[in-house]
Amino acid sequence: MSDRAAERMTKAVEAFARDLSGFRTGRASAALVERVTVEAYGAATPLNQMAGISVPENTLLVIQPWDPSMIPAIEKALNNAQLGMTPAVDGGVIRLRVPSMTEERRKELVKQMGKRAEEARVEIRSIRRDEQDAVKKAEKAHEIGEDDARRQMDAIQKQTDAKVAEIDKLATSKEREVLEG
């Protein structure tokens, strides 16, 4: 299996893990707001590049902008991000209280995570298919022998299985976290 394909599979798993970190579990986490972009100084800037984000309590996020004049822009961006939390400006900081989730919302999140997990699996399988096609092409062109082709196909399948198992493990762990809340 090529290094490029292994790297693409690893990146697919990492992207899925990042997606999962954005799911709200009823506990405060800086990952909930890291991707929020704020219109500041004429450009869209990620929130984590213009403010300190801390979690002083299980259900509270505190955002402290390095430039206090940016508080209104950050508050607007948080409202537009539809996080399900209302920002409260308190002096030089913005507080976000993470509400507890209903059972219905937890099940809905688990369903969404399942969809994302399946998308990640499909991406891994697509990379596998590309690699298998390249091996078949090389075998057909007599660049590699039949035994080498079979070995490479087995290696590709093992790598695919390992990455799919990684995705499953991440999804199961996050689902448990969401359902337990």
Overall geometric form: elongated
Radius of gyration: 22 Å
Counted beta strands: 6
- CATH H-tier superfamily of the largest domain: Ribosome-recycling factor
Count of folded domains: 2
Mean pLDDT: 86
Unreliable parts: none
CATH top-level class of the largest domain: Mainly Alpha
Q: Give a quick account of the main beta sheet: strands, pairing sense, barrel closure.
A: 4 strands, antiparallel
Tally of helical runs:
4
Q: What percent of residues adopt helix (DSSP H or I)?
A: 55-70%
Question: What is the architecture of the largest domain at the second tier of CATH?
Answer: Orthogonal Bundle
Task: Assess the beta-strand content as a share of residues.
Answer: 15-25%
- CATH fold type of the largest domain: Topoisomerase I, Chain A, domain 4
Order of helices and strands: HEEEEHEEHH
Give a description of the structure.
- The longest helix has 38 residues, at 103-140.
- The protein has 181 residues and is of the alpha+beta class.
- The protein has four helices and six strands, in the order αββββαββαα.
- The chain has helices at 3-21, 71-80, 103-140, 146-180, and strands at residues 37-40, 43-46, 51-57, 60-65, 87-90, 93-97.
- The protein has two domains: 3-21 and 102-180, Ribosome-recycling factor (Topoisomerase I, Chain A, domain 4, Orthogonal Bundle), CATH 1.10.132; 30-97, Gyrase A, domain 2 (2-Layer Sandwich).
- The strands form two sheets. It has a four-stranded antiparallel sheet with strand order 3-4-6-5, covered by helices on one side. A two-stranded antiparallel sheet has the order 1-2.
